[in-house]
Amino acid sequence: MYKRQVDAALDELEAFIADQVKNIDLGNVQGDGKPVLDSLNAQCPMCGSELAVTPRVIGCRACAFKFYPEVSGKMLSPGQIEALLTNGKTGVLKGFHSKKTGKSFEAALKLNHEAKLEFVYSGKPKRA
């Protein structure tokens, strides 16, 4: 009799959990649980069309432009992304991590003439 009560309770719990999981909206959550953009106040820098926003990539609905909001280990904020897409550049940002050296660095970001992302370093020029 006890086993039947336990089995019934487990079945009820399983149904409850399945219902709760089914109702979770993961559309605006990225891997570390931080919300990402639902929409942008910016258009495609290449063609001016509407941008599609997903947790890991922002892409144009009309052309081949795409942009990853995580750059060198740093997740860009919505404001930084909008500045980059509307102005073509950001201010100096901290928190990037070099894959080669493993060190942190700071730089501004800009979109070049092909709408590709580039770092703009503000340090002193290197001597030859």
UniProtKB/TrEMBL annotation:
Entry superkingdom: Bacteria
Name under which the protein is recorded: DNA topoisomerase III
